[in-house]
Design goal:
about 675 residues; mainly alpha; two-stranded antiparallel ribbon; 32 helices
């Protein structure tokens, strides 16, 4: 294996040496030089060791000089493209090429009118690679004046707002313009460079003109990326952007895209790009959110948040922008309440599993908490027109008081935590119930088998009745417990969904119908179980073994106002708590078992177990049969003792007759086997 790797490395070195020699001795053949450069680019892109070796043999500097001195455009393009690939693969090569001399050569290529579009694109690509993640490159691109050339290209490359990409010349110009945008983004960010941001903000008026006149993804995406990175974490640049009307332009574009999002999914995706740019503008200055209030941006954000085509990351950007909009602007906060933003945030907070999304939703709710009291006292102090005043009065009649919504939201969150704790306790009780049920079933099967062998067909009917009764009882128990658990789980999942005022009334009625059906099914199974139980058990003591569960009230409905989502959520949670508490009634059935059932697992023998059963006032049917059989057996033994003095009550180790013996039930069996079987019947559980 090592020999194969060594051969590959040696072959790679040989190829690079030959290709470098070809570049040196084929000066008059540009086609061969171009092919050699393309081959070198391919080798270095696939193998990082090749980049290091090519630099060691002097190939990097030779290609740099070749790109500067060659008279052929194709050779220059291939040489610059190879340099860019090598610098992108290796940081040391990037530092080696990052010189003012190379930046000046690239400025000449970009400024020369004789340079074709491909040569300019490759030159911009080399600048991007040298500046990316390199503060030294950001400094050189500014000091050499290269960034000014890039700014000029941004202004002049696209002269017409009607972008016809089907035209080859227009398409080539657009490709170069897009590369310039990407390079400017790298010049101002990663790492952030305040001085370069100050230079690039001069393009904001030109970028605004393009955003207004050409609402296309090909223009909006690169411009929004450039604006967002240029003003990020720079208060001065943010103020300048707002002063030239940049935030107003973004708001207008966002309103248009939100309107188009109802027809096309791509408009919703593009609107998220604009939202990120708006958020970068107001994140450090929440007071700038007042500009957004003129265009009712909060309502547009809430509408986009309900769009089905957006993923969790895009929704996170929307919610974070909502938080910055409502952080210091009371008009935006009022609009947030007015458009049912609070129930939507609570629903997002409870349904989402994304931690970042939950943090953003909590941020929005915190902003609402801080201003709720102030809004409730000063709603009428805003200078609304007459129509707005009438609408405000109607809304106040329906919503009553905004502070109540916040209080009920707190109650909902507290009750959800309480339900989770009670759900864990119910799981523990359910596991205990399963363990006890399995022990009872195993004991019952053992007794049934022994009783069948000793008593024969006379007791089979009674055994079958007992078995059917226990099955019905267990089905009733499990059915009751599981139905309650399922009802609780379903209600917890749909708890905050019902907070939407549009769907609250419909979902409430649907839950009432579901609960009524579950209760009716449960009560029907209970009546069937008790009816069969009465037919099977005649003795009065059996009534004390199994107790009826608490009665269930059907069709318990409360008429609530449709426009109050938190009251609906509150009542649903109250019902959930009652259902969890009523589930404990199933555990009461274990308190009425007889002493023989409770004593399973203790150290018992044939004597103390018989005393235990006789001392129990309320015996279950199974142990009642055992006691009766034992009494009959002892009665027969007393009669035999009177007739025949040789038979003793206490068994002794003596030779028994091997003649067949007749058991009290009339079954004939061998003598020794009869005594063993009867002993097992009486004393074993």
């Amino acid at each position: 294996m090592e020999s194969e790797d060594t051969k590959k490395i040696q072959g790679m070195k040989t190829d690079l040496n030959l290709l470098l020699e070809c570049l040196k001795y084929q000066i008059d053949n540009p086609f061969l030089q171009k092919e050699a450069l393309v081959t070198i680019h391919s080798i270095c892109q696939q193998n990082s060791n090749a980049v290091v070796y090519f630099r060691e043999i002097g190939g990097l500097m030779f290609v740099k000089n070749l790109g500067k001195s060659s008279e052929h455009s194709m050779v220059k393009e291939a040489a610059l493209y190879t340099l860019g690939t090598i610098a992108e693969q290796n940081v040391y090569c990037q530092q080696t090429l990052c010189t003012s001399e190379l930046f000046e050569d690239l400025i000449l290529f970009l400024s020369n009118n004789d340079s074709n579009t491909n040569l300019k694109r490759v030159s911009v690509y080399v600048i991007l690679v040298l500046v990316s993640n390199n503060r030294t490159g950001q400094t050189l691109v500014r000091e050499t004046g290269c960034i000014k050339v890039l700014l000029q290209l941004f202004r002049i490359l696209l002269s017409k707002y009607e972008l016809n990409l089907s035209d080859k010349n227009v398409f080539d110009s657009y490709q170069l313009w897009s590369s310039v945008c990407s390079t400017l983004c790298v010049c101002v960010n990663n790492p952030q460079n305040d001085e370069n941001q100050m230079l690039c903000c001069s393009l904001f008026p030109h970028a605004n003109d393009w955003l207004i006149n050409c609402v296309k993804p090909e223009i909006i995406r690169p411009i929004c990326s450039f604006i967002g990175l240029t003003l990020a974490n720079n208060t001065y640049v943010q103020k300048y952007f707002i002063s030239v009307g940049g935030l107003d332009v973004l708001s207008q574009v966002l309103v248009q895209l939100e309107s188009d999002s109802h027809k096309t999914l791509s408009s919703a995706k593009l609107a998220v790009v604009v939202i990120k740019t708006v958020d970068a503008c107001i994140a450090d200055n929440p007071t700038f959110g007042e500009v957004l209030a003129k265009y009712h941006i909060v309502s547009k954000l809430l509408a986009l948040l309900l769009h089905e085509s957006l993923d969790s990351e895009e929704k996170f950007s929307i919610i974070l922008t909502l938080g910055h909009c409502t952080e210091a602007c009371e008009e935006n906060q009022y609009e947030f309440f007015k458009n049912c933003g609070l129930p939507l945030m609570i629903q997002t907070l409870t349904e989402s599993q994304n931690e970042e999304l939950n943090k953003a939703a909590t941020f929005v709710l915190y902003n609402c908490k801080k201003i709720t009291e102030k809004l409730s006292l000063s709603l009428r102090e805003y200078s609304f027109d007459e129509n707005e005043a009438e609408k405000l009065e109607d809304i106040n009649m329906k919503e009553k008081n905004i502070e109540e919504y916040w209080k009920k939201a707190k109650e909902i969150l507290q009750r959800i935590e309480q339900l989770e704790a009670e759900g864990n306790e119910e799981k523990i009780q359910r596991e205990k119930y399963k363990d006890v049920s399995s022990v009872n079933i195993n004991t019952q099967n053992t007794w049934k088998h022994l009783h069948a062998d000793s008593s024969g067909g006379g007791l089979k009917v009674e055994d079958e009745k007992d078995k059917s009764q226990s099955r019905k009882l267990q089905s009733f128990k499990s059915q009751g417990v599981m139905s309650k658990a399922c009802t609780n789980d379903d209600q917890m999942k749909t708890l905050l969904k019902s907070a939407n005022p549009v769907n609250a009334c419909y979902r409430k009625s649907e839950q009432n119908e579901t609960l009524w059906k579950a209760n009716s099914t449960r009560s029907q199974n209970f009546h069937e179980g008790t009816t069969s139980g009465k037919s099977c058990f005649v003795s009065q003591s059996s009534d004390c073994v199994f107790k009826h569960p608490n009665p269930i009230v059907k069709n318990r409905r409360q008429h609530l106002p449709v426009g109050d989502p938190f009251t609906l959520c509150s009542d649903i949670i109250n019902k959930e708590v009652i259902n969890f508490l009523s589930a404990d009634s199933c555990s009461k059935m274990f308190k009425y078992r007889c002493s023989g059932c409770i004593a399973v697992g203790k150290s018992l023998n044939s004597r103390n177990f018989s005393k235990l059963l006789h001392s129990c006032l309320y015996q279950c049917d199974r142990h009642k049969v055992i006691v009766e059989a034992e009494d009959r057996y002892k009665s027969e033994l007393r009669k035999s003792l009177i007739c025949n003095k040789k038979i003793l009550l206490t068994p002794r180790r003596r030779q028994l007759s091997k003649e067949p013996t007749t058991a009290p039930g009339g079954i004939r069996m061998p003598g020794k086997l009869a005594i063993k079987c009867l002993s097992t019947l009486v004393f074993l559980d």
